Amino acid sequence: MCGIIGYSGRRPAVPIILDGLRRLEYRGYDSAGVVVCGAERLLGEKERGRLDNLVRLLALRPLAATTGVGHTRWATHGPPSKENSHPHYSQDETFAVVHNGIIENFHDLRRGLERRGVRFRSQTDTEVIVHLIAQGYEGDLLEAFRRALEQLRGAYAVLLVSSRHPDEILAARHGSPLIVGVGEGENFLASDVPAILPYTRRAIYLKENRVARVTPAGVEVYDLAATARGRGARTSDGDGAGDGAARAARLERSSTTRVVTIDLDIKAAEKEGFDHFMVKEIHEQPRAIEETMRGRVRGGEVVFDDFPLSPARLRKFNRVSIIACGTAWHAGLVAKFAIEEFARMSVDAVISSEFRYANLVLGRRDLVIAVSQSGETADTLAGVREARRLGATVVTICNVVGSSIPRESNAVLYTHAGPEVAVASTKAYTTQMALLLLFALRLARARGAAPRDRVAAVLEQMRALPGMVRETIGNDRTIRQIAAKYHKVYNYLFVGRRYNYPTAFEGALKLKEISYIHAEGYQAGELKHGPIALVDGSFPTVAICVRSPVYEKMLSNIQEIKARGGLVLAVASKSDRRVSRLVDWLVRVPDTDECLSPILAVIPLQLLAYHVSVRRGLDPDRPRNLAKSVTVE
Ligand code: M6R
Q: Cα–Cα distance between 295 and 58 in angstroms, integer?
């Protein structure tokens, strides 16, 4: 999830690009770069770290031009470094691209290009794009662009500039957002609205598989499938910006390309119209899960490109310990069930601050999985160091490429959730669970512990996850009503079993951290051993009662609570007909395999915490006493 911007007009491009990047920094901030079309050649600068580093550099070495593109990066392939920063250039530096998304087949493309003598300068997936363009260029930039795009699998929003076509930017969208800002004698491109708002409120939301050609004089939009038939196959054309009324009239007639007026202010636009980052990030989950799975499921198997642990090595481990803090630990608890079920290995999921000071019995046959959104959590980092000192192998599940924990691990798998701004973790959690499940299946296959068809069946259901998550978010209205009714309650209990007792823990954590309401998460079987004493008519229990081997047991637990006059809010499967008869409020989630159900069941709990917090007049994005990343012990 990077930020990209393009400008083609009559004004100096760099200040506009930098201003746009500043407004897109929430999309990524590990490095930034710009390239402009100079009088004879492309001129660019890039720098690691926050945008300010690039701004300082450009103050010393200004770039003068009126067309250019910029990028602020959130690393997915290759750590944050100057070489991996965008833009990426062709060998002769006449073409440059910036990109947001993931190119799934970049390994194969890179190998092919290397065989043809191309020397790569970065570890990114993006660099293949610019080399493909350079190789396919025979004088027609649009055609070379099309040929390159045709070879890409994955997701992209990509901008291309060339010193041979100094007044134009080509842009394409497939799976990653891209908008065209329409001005007077100048036009813009951006991955998100806030970047263009100070300059124009007229925009084209580029649809899937569209290519745009942007110049100071106008905007032409092409259908990628149609351009494949040749340049004459333009489906809609100039918007009229600085290009005469005829073009505008033709654009208005187009059924597929519309100029719309944006009426958001900049602050609202950063949050894509949502009131807070937390709720925006909850809504981003379908896409975040899709990105996390992208390119990792092929032919009914899990494939991790560049993963250094071979199947033979994975077979040698006889025990797994998962270490993490807070929400990441809850993802680890879910993973414990998945690894035990599929890989048939014994798993411990331990809170990092306990792990680091435990009398650890670890050695060469131990696999330690560290889970961390930020990759900087001090206790988890210390646990990783200790595990490695004792000879264990450490695999990290992380969201921030190049952060400390991945750097100190033997292997890393990244969740591609994009930056998580809100302190309360939401999309990082669901993507951690999805990736840990993929890892469990990979481990299972390497060890011959799970039949191919069982793994393929789970992966098939995982494909449907983004849609099911979207459907679950659709319960927002009901959850708002629940929040309206129960936001003044002082205590909550959350209960679940097996794969979903961690969901109960997570629901309780979400509520307490952003609503300051006391909440406890319990394994439902533990109720009778103490917590049921708390239950009375004013005390809500949130019960996770989805289809699973312990469904009947959960029903009994709910009945026990009801028998004591308790109030029950349940999360149940869509096909369920029994829970609804027992409980006070019900939120339904799509039916799925038990191992995937925590990814769906937590969403109503995230929304509940969010709406309760808002109802209580709090700021869910910045809860008191908490920091996003806990880098001290
Ligand atoms: O960056 P990490 O995943 O290592 O952070 C771990 C916890 O600090 C984090 O999950 C915390 O519990 C969140 N605020 C929960 O929403």
A: 37
Q: What's the 328 CA to ligand 1 centre distance in angstroms?
A: 6
380 CA closest ligand 1 atom index: 4
User: Which atom of ligand 1 lies nearest, measured to the CA of 432?
Assistant: 3
3-state secondary structure 590-621: CCCCHHHHHHHHHHHHHHHHHHHHHHCCCCCC
What's the gap in Å between 213 CA and the centre of ligand 1? Answer: 43
Determine which one of 2, 37, 398, 545 is catalytic.
2
Cβ-count burial of 248 within 10 angstroms (0-12 exposed, 13-18 middle, 19+ buried)?
A: middle
Do 90 and 139 form a contact (C-beta atoms < 8 A)? no
Quick check: 48 and 93 in contact, CB under 8 A?
A: no
Q: Which residues contact 485 (CB under 8 A, 6 or more apart)?
A: none
Higher pLDDT, 404 or 199: 199
How high is the pLDDT of residue 591? 97
For every residue of 458-497, DSSP letters joined together read: HHHHHHTHHHHHHHHHTTHHHHHHHHHHHTT-SEEEEEE-
Q: What is the mean pLDDT of residues 336-352?
A: 97
Report the alpha-carbon distance of residue 425 to residue 508 in Å, rounded: 13
Domains of the chain: 3-261 (3.60.20.10), 270-463 (3.40.50.10490), 474-633 (3.40.50.10490)
Given a cut of 70, whether residue 382 has pLDDT beyond it is: yes
Q: What is the pLDDT of residues 416-454, one digit of tens each?
A: 998 888 999 999 999 999 999 999 999 999 999 999 999
CA distance 128 to 156: 12
Provide the pLDDT for residue 492. 95
pLDDT of 134 higher than 50 = yes
| 404 contact partners, CB below 8 Å, separation of at least 6 | 375, 376, 381
CA–CA separation, 286 vs 471, rounded Å? 10
Percent of the chain surpassing pLDDT 70: 95
The residue to mutate among 282, 405, 425, having the most atoms of ligand 1 within 8 angstroms of its beta carbon, is 425
For residue 285, give the nearest of 128, 458, 431 by alpha carbon. 431
Taken as a whole, the chain contains a residue count of 633
Contact 522, 541 (CB under 8 A): no
User: What is the whole-number distance in angstroms between the Cα of residue 339 and the centre of ligand 1?
Assistant: 22
* Alpha-carbon span 511 to 424, nearest angstrom: 10
Q: What residue ranges line ligand 1, CB within 6 angstroms?
A: 325-328, 372-374, 377, 380, 423-425, 509, 513, 629-630
The token duo for 138 is: 């025979």
Measured CA to CA, the distance from residue 41 to residue 424 in angstroms comes to 46
Rg of the chain in Å (alpha carbons)? 26
Kindly state the helix (H) or strand (E) to which residue 473 belongs, with its residue range: helix 465-473
Please, what is the angle between helix 141-150 and helix 127-136, to 10°?
Answer: 130
Give me ligand 1 centre to Cα 368, in Å: 18
Specify the DSSP class assigned to residue 629: S
Amino acid at 210: R
Predicted pLDDT of residue 255: 52
**Can 628 be counted among the known catalytic residues?**
yes
